[in-house]
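Technical annex B. To support the medicinal chemistry partners, we prepared a structural model of the target in complex with BIS(adenosine)-5'-pentaphosphate, based solely on the information shown next.
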Amino acid sequence: MNITVFLGAPGSGKGTQAKRLAERLGFVHLSTGDMLRAAIQKGTDVGKRAKATIDRGELVSDSIMIELIQNVLSELPKAKVILDGFPRTVPQAQALDQNASTKVNKAISFHVDAQKLVERLTGRRICEKCGEPFHVKFMPSKVAGVCDKCGGKLIQRADDSEDVVVTRLDVYQKQTSPLLNYYKDQESLFQVEADAPVDTVQNDLTKILS
Ligand code: AP5
């Protein structure tokens, strides 16, 4: 398996880029946030256990997340995979490293100035059907409130309210940013300036992934 990890604060553009690059470069895109939101919608056990934690902007437990991702990866032995939103803690990264076939090839850090992240997140709208992300100012849909891709209704994520966003950014600093040094030490860390326009970021990522 060939695994690339997208690392970055909430709102840094991981999902936007992963969706585009997966289609263009033949990667399987696995977003743990999307998986959890689907589980909540379906009312599964995992969804029920995770909902309140996600709504508060905190991280779901490592044990739930590791089991979730290992189950999916075990079905994709030869795939090229972009992991978007996993790992998010050092124990999650160590769980990938424990199995030679799920060792991370590249970890790409998305760098965006902190003050821009709040505006990106509070203005984000996602399609309730296909999950495609838009932004009321930076990436508006052609028809207001309607997904360009599938015609679904655009909604605001419950955890994109300003107070929850502040918690999520704090959680990122405390629990996820140590992974930058973790992958730097493994010499697998790359960085993109994710403040740039979407197409520029996409080109920079394509060079790293090719
Ligand atoms: P998750 O869904 O993974 O949320 P996140 O990491 O907080 O990331 P986001 O989806 O908010 O941001 P993004 O970087 O994908 O940005 P996007 O491309 O949408 O996780 C949600 C929750 O699930 C977590 O809080 C946690 O509770 C739980 N969870 C998930 N995984 C977990 C794990 N492994 N362990 C424990 N808990 C876990 O872009 C944001 C906005 O900016 C959009 O509106 C977009 O249109 C716009 N935009 C994108 N790029 C640009 C650009 N270049 N210029 C201008 N605007 C842009």
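Notes passed to the chemistry partners:
The chain has a mean pLDDT of 96.
The chain is about 45% helix and 20% strand.
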